[in-house]
Amino acid sequence: MYLIDSTKLTEEELDKFSTSLKEVMGYIKYPKDKEKLLEFLRTDTHKTIEMNAARVIKMITNTPIEVSEEMEEIEMCKAIDDLILESESRGRMEGEKKGEAKGLIEICLEMNFSKEDILRKLQDKLNISMQQASEYFEIYGRKTE
């Protein structure tokens, strides 16, 4: 039995694979280096891969890519680009929510609201959990006190 550590494969060794295992190994090779992963996926031979290979990648790397039952291939570059856009969008939304929380906490503190009232207002206005409201208060309530 042979075991392959895909993270230690050289480009030459990776090129020896002639099936979709090449794409799977290439994807797994760059788990933390997104630039190299995108570079690998953008080469002509890796742009589209078999759906079974995509399923393996999804399971092994826990990548939240959409795997369709109807399609035979998937465009990995597009799938990764979509994931990046989604991640950026979530980051912007989280930043906006933090800004709203900070402003609300500052105003409520200026108006001498109790911590409990501020936490309730955060929950109501931002539609967040008590835990998240408490975390925001710990971050932004202390700076303004």
Describe the structure.
This protein is mainly α and 145 residues long. It is 66% helix and 4% strand. The chain has 7 helices and 2 strands. It has helices spanning 11-15, 21-29, 34-41, 51-61, 76-110, 115-126, 130-144; strands spanning 48-50, 73-75. Strands 1-2 form a two-stranded antiparallel ribbon. The model has no long low-confidence stretch (mean pLDDT 83).
Uncertain runs: none
Structural class estimated from helices and strands: mainly alpha
Total number of helices: 7
Mean pLDDT: 83
Largest sheet: 2 strands, antiparallel
Helix content: 55-70%
Overall body shape: elongated
| C-alpha end-to-end distance | 64 Å
Which strand order do you get reading across the main beta sheet?
1-2
Strand content: under 5%
Q: What Rg is obtained from the alpha carbons, in whole angstroms?
A: 23 Å
State the total count of DSSP E strands. Answer: 2
SSE string? HHHEHEHHH
Summarize the structure.
The protein has 7 helices and 2 strands.
Primary descriptors:
single chain, mainly alpha
SSE order and pairing:
Elements: H1 11-15, H2 21-29, H3 34-41, E1 48-50, H4 51-61, E2 73-75, H5 76-110, H6 115-126, H7 130-144
Antiparallel strand pairs: 1-2
